[in-house]
Design the sequence.
């Protein structure tokens, strides 16, 4: 089912995805889903949504965990490890280099312009990821209501997100979202 | 002056173990995404005083240009500032190794019991809320831009190209980032 070249293909793809993940974890979710569920059929939509839920509800580096779960699914522990390195390796190298170039970056007048141009695109990508994940995870109109209610609650209150994840988990556990 | 001297002392005294444990704490506190930066600021700026408020803001804004989980950039930068490359590695290991091992083990435990319907339902419910959290995060990020039409336009285009156009991320970045920066540059030049 899973060919010998799958681990390599996944690692290369993850390294590429993480190198363009401006805005972090959320912006790459649609691409990751297409690659893993669509192109390669390594898992179903449902499995992908479950991994996403796990990565979001476990403390720690959730982008790297998400990629590692995918890696595990494809190639066991070596896959998980390779995926983790592919995910944080390229950005870390860039961060370290950028830190070395710190002073040159700092006062440049183009800095503000680039940030002003990049920010709205990233914002749009984050909202799109939420929508794509909702499409992947929500199987019923009740689930859609929960997604909307969570979004609204987050926007109008300062409630810790963990409570909303917990509420979603309880509603799901009671089989109210099928 | 005394502040400066104190700061120097702190820099010299920082142990790799301290970098490791501090970033371990930040990693474990930032559950659900988004809260990580809050904890990083509290520990690194307020408690440890490894970087000043201004430096911290500089680090954050620098990383808006960069791919990857930005919070990792904080550990790399602060570690590098305190102890160079080895410090960056210590901070990064603190941030990653234990949380990654714990998280992966929990996840694999789930995969063992993946056929339990109750567990699958719970995770499905969490995914449903987590998607809502992502949407809200995006909308909140949009707020500071809402009075600038070009920002709204490019945000809407990026959203639509991914959601409805189903284009890959790279294609969206390549087609939207240059014009968006161009427009920002023109606005900036006019404002002067």
Sequence:
């Amino acid at each position: 089912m899973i060919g010998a070249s799958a681990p390599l293909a996944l690692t290369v793809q993850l390294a590429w995805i993480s190198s363009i993940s401006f805005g972090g974890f959320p912006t790459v979710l649609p691409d990751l889903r297409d690659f893993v569920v669509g192109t390669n059929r390594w898992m179903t939509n449902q499995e992908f949504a479950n991994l996403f839920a796990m990565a979001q509800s476990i403390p720690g580096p959730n982008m790297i965990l998400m990629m590692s779960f995918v890696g595990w699914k494809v190639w066991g522990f070596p896959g998980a490890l390779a995926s983790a390195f592919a995910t944080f390796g390229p950005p870390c190298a860039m961060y370290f280099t950028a830190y070395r170039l710190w002073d040159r970056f700092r006062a440049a007048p183009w800095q503000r312009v680039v940030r002003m141009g990049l920010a709205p695109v990233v914002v749009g990508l984050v909202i799109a990821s939420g929508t794509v994940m909702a499409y992947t995870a929500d199987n019923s109109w009740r689930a859609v209501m929960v997604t909307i209610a969570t979004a609204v609650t987050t926007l109008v209150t300062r409630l810790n997100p963990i409570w909303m994840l917990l509420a979603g988990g309880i509603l799901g556990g009671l089989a109210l979202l099928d | 002056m005394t502040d400066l001297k104190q700061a120097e002392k702190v820099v010299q005294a920082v142990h790799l173990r301290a970098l490791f444990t501090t970033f371990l704490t930040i990693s474990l506190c930032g559950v659900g995404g988004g809260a990580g930066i809050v904890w990083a600021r509290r520990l690194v700026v307020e408690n440890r005083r490894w970087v000043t408020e201004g430096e911290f803001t500089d680090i954050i804004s620098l990383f808006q240009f960069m791919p990857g989980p930005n919070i990792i950039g904080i550990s790399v930068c602060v570690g590098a500032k305190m102890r160079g490359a080895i410090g960056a590695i210590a901070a990064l290991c603190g941030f990653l190794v234990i949380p990654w091992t714990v998280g992966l083990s929990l996840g694999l435990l789930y995969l063992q019991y993946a056929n339990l319907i109750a567990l699958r339902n719970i995770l499905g419910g969490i995914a449903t809320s987590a998607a809502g959290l992502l949407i809200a995060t995006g909308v909140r990020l949009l707020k500071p831009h809402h009075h600038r039409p070009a920002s709204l336009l490019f945000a809407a285009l990026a959203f639509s190209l991914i959601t409805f156009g189903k284009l890959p991320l790279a294609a969206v970045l390549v087609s939207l980032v240059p014009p968006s920066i161009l427009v920002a540059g023109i606005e900036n030049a006019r404002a002067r």
Q: What stands out?
A: The mean pLDDT of chain A is 87. Helices of chain A lie at 6-19, 25-39, 45-57, 62-100, 102-106, 110-137, 141-156, 161-173.
